[in-house]
């Protein structure tokens, strides 16, 4: 499959759980080290994971989406959508980040994830953490925020934003020294008024031993074709993270600071491409293979490509209609 074919496939697969850019990953044949998985574009979030043998750098933007009492998604202000648990696990939330019942906030990801963290032990593995996330999210989406009941009684309505995926939890950690990324997600069955999930998928490691790459989820219109020198995404990355981007293109591992630069640059590039859905700077987590992880908040970087960014925003807006 050629790169243009892969990009077209990604657009056509927006209603599926994950579309793959074949230049970086072809599951049934040879696997190159750099992985870029482009997931459904229905969420008001961009998440980026830059992983290498020495560290995982993960980040999200800080513009949250809220499930209102009327069952529609609305944009909020600053919000935390990625956290560090026990100083050695990263968990990001894509999709349903908040929910109100009347004026009462009944689900808020940063508060909810505390219930997961208290069940962890010093020996908890990434797969065991994923199981805890499955258990807690299943309870929440059945009892606290009864999604199926809301679908059936009409409080939760089918829309572009709520077409396929409700929520995706992405877990990243080092297990036995290997970068590990696992997703747990819930998907709508609108025909049957049913919520499918939790479904767990291990993205990294794969059967080819991939340990250098980039995993993205959520809104990716502006960064889905960053390997093409003619695109806004490519030009933006060469300005915001030149050294890190060269290594990514060359399939070389990034250093910690370079990984941070790359994650910030990808999030800010996407924020310029889809400003209605992505923005407010970024939350970046650096997790070394040994030692404790750290969390840092960053303001959005200014772009020097204002005309190109405006054109890209217009293109992405048109694609999203």
Topology:
Blueprint: H1 3-12, E1 18-20, E2 37-39, E3 46-51, E4 55-61, E5 63-67, E6 73-78, E7 82-85, E8 89-95, E9 98-101, E10 104-108, H2 109-117, H3 126-144, H4 147-153, E11 165-175, E12 178-189, E13 194-204, E14 213-218, H5 232-240, H6 242-249, H7 256-273, E15 282-288, E16 294-298, H8 306-320
Parallel strand pairs: 5-9
Antiparallel strand pairs: 1-2, 3-4, 3-14, 4-15, 5-6, 7-8, 8-11, 9-10, 11-12, 12-13, 15-16
Helix pairs in contact: 5-6, 5-7
CATH fold description: Glutamine Phosphoribosylpyrophosphate, subunit 1, domain 1
Number of domains: 1
Strand order of the largest sheet: 14-3-4-15-16
Gap from first CA to last CA:
27 Å
Total helical segments: 8
Q: Give the name of the CATH architecture.
A: 4-Layer Sandwich
Which structural class matches the secondary elements?
alpha+beta
Strand content: 25-35%
CATH class: Alpha Beta
Task: Please state the CA-atom Rg, rounded to the nearest Å.
Answer: 18 Å
Low-pLDDT regions: 1-42
For this structure, what is the CATH homologous superfamily? Aminohydrolase, N-terminal nucleophile (Ntn) domain
Please state the overall shape, judged from the principal axes of the Cα atoms. globular
Order of helices and strands: HEEEEEEEEEEHHHEEEEHHHEEH
Average of the residue pLDDT scores: 83
Q: Largest beta sheet, briefly?
A: 5 strands, antiparallel
Give the beta-strand count. 16
Report the oligomer: single chain
Percentage of helical residues? Answer: 25-40%
């Amino acid at each position: 499959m050629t790169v243009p074919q892969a990009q077209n496939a990604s657009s056509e697969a927006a209603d599926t759980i994950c579309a793959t850019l074949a230049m970086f990953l072809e599951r049934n044949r040879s696997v190159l080290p750099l992985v870029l998985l482009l997931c459904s574009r229905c969420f008001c979030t961009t998440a980026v994971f830059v992983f290498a043998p020495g560290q995982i750098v993960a980040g999200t933007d800080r513009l949250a989406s809220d499930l209102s009492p009327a069952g529609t998604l609305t944009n909020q202000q600053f919000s935390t959508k990625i956290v560090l648990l026990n100083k050695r696990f990263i968990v990001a939330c894509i999709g349903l980040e908040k929910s109100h019942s009347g004026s009462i906030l009944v689900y808020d990801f940063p508060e909810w994830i505390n219930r997961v963290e208290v069940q962890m032990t010093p020996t908890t593995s990434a797969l065991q953490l994923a199981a805890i996330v499955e258990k807690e999210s299943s309870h929440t989406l059945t009892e606290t925020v009864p999604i199926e009941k809301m679908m059936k009684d009409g409080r939760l309505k089918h829309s572009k934003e709520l077409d396929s995926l409700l929520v995706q939890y992405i877990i990243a950690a080092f297990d036995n020294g290997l970068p590990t990324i696992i997703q747990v997600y819930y998907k709508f069955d609108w025909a049957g008024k049913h919520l499918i999930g939790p479904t767990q998928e291990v993205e990294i490691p794969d059967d080819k031993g991939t340990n250098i790459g980039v995993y993205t989820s959520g809104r990716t219109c502006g960064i889905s074709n960053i390997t093409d020198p003619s695109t806004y995404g490519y030009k933006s990355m060469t300005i915001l993270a030149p050294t890190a981007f060269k290594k990514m293109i060359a399939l070389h591992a990034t250093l910690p600071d370079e990984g941070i630069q790359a994650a910030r640059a990808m999030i800010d590039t996407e924020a310029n491409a889809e400003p209605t859905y992505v923005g407010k700077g970024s939350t970046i987590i650096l997790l070394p293979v040994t030692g404790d992880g750290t969390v840092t908040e960053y303001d959005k970087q200014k772009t020097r490509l204002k005309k190109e960014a405006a054109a890209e925003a217009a293109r992405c807006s048109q694609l999203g209609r």
